[in-house]
């Protein structure tokens, strides 16, 4: 898994690629919670390069979202591949997370 | 002769990718395709993650054996020598209750028709997962 954090005029985008699993999710959690502690909002997560996610990866995002909700922050997912989206839908989390096809869609919402 | 394939990996999460790769290959060999392979791969990964978390309590120096058998269906047997699971306490969270954790068991049970611990195993655990043949599984074995 690779994590790249882009800062475009104060807009933070976490671009994740590769597999998010029990081995890699602690690194993701560290980066995510670092931004959450700074109360970054909105915070974008680019999923286009994600090839796999398990329950530990999902738990990381649920934890991040819950923490963001305490300060009214918004966590926006971008470009979720179909097979990853199916997992979010099965877990009924498509109703919980904000999900957009593109960065511009997410910015305009 | 009963045919099977097995791998033994350390109980270190870095080897979960190896388990996923082998699971996907075995599922394809069995005749699954596309989403079914992805679902089975996730389910076996979750079961092995549970071994690391619960049976070994994070100890990365133990062993996990994953055996694949094509018998009544696609059968995966996962063995460890850790703390005995208590099946009566294994249940996922309600999908309506949004909080971290508690999803893994749902990912396993949505794919496999049988989720059963072998009570005969005296030490450690032997989890048997069986996914019976579906109509859209290609019977590649019969072609070979």
Task: Give a quick summary of the entry.
Chain A has four helices and five strands, in the order ββαβαβαβα. Chain A is of the alpha/beta class and about 110 residues long.
How would you describe this structure in keywords?
heterodimer; A: about 110 residues; alpha/beta; Transcription Regulator spoIIAA; B: about 140 residues; alpha+beta; Heat Shock Protein 90; 5-stranded antiparallel sheet; 5 strands; about 25% strand
Overall mean confidence score, pLDDT of chain B: 91
Q: Give me the CATH fold name of chain B.
A: Heat Shock Protein 90
Q: How do the strands of the widest beta sheet of chain A line up side by side?
A: 1-2-3-4-5
- Quaternary structure type: heterodimer
Low-confidence stretches of chain B: none
Order of helices and strands of chain B: EHHEEHEEH
- Which class do the helix and strand fractions of chain A yield? alpha/beta
List the helices and strands and how they pair.
The complex is a heterodimer of chains A (109) and B (144).
Chain A: E1 2-8, E2 11-20, H1 25-37, E3 43-53, H2 55-69, E4 75-78, H3 82-90, E5 98-100, H4 103-107
Parallel strand pairs in A: 2-3, 3-4, 4-5
Antiparallel strand pairs in A: 1-2
Chain B: E1 4-10, H1 16-30, H2 34-55, E2 63-70, E3 73-80, H3 104-109, E4 114-117, E5 125-132, H4 140-143
Antiparallel strand pairs in B: 1-2, 2-3, 3-5, 4-5
Helix pairs in contact in B: 1-2
Would you mind describing this structure in some detail?
The complex is a heterodimer of chains A (109) and B (144). Chain A has 109 residues and is of the alpha/beta class. Chain A has one domain: STAS domain (Transcription Regulator spoIIAA, 2-Layer Sandwich), CATH 3.30.750.24. Chain A is built from four helices and five strands, in the order ββαβαβαβα. In chain A, β1 and β2 form a beta hairpin. In chain A, α1 runs parallel beside α2. The radius of gyration of chain A is 13 Å and the shape is globular. Chain B has a single domain, classed as Heat Shock Protein 90. The model of chain B has no long low-confidence stretch (mean pLDDT 91). Chain B has a five-stranded antiparallel beta sheet with strand order 1-2-3-5-4, with helices on one face. Chain B has four helices and five strands, in the order βααββαββα. The chains are: A alpha/beta (109), B alpha+beta (144). The interface between A and B is medium-sized, with 22 and 27 residues.
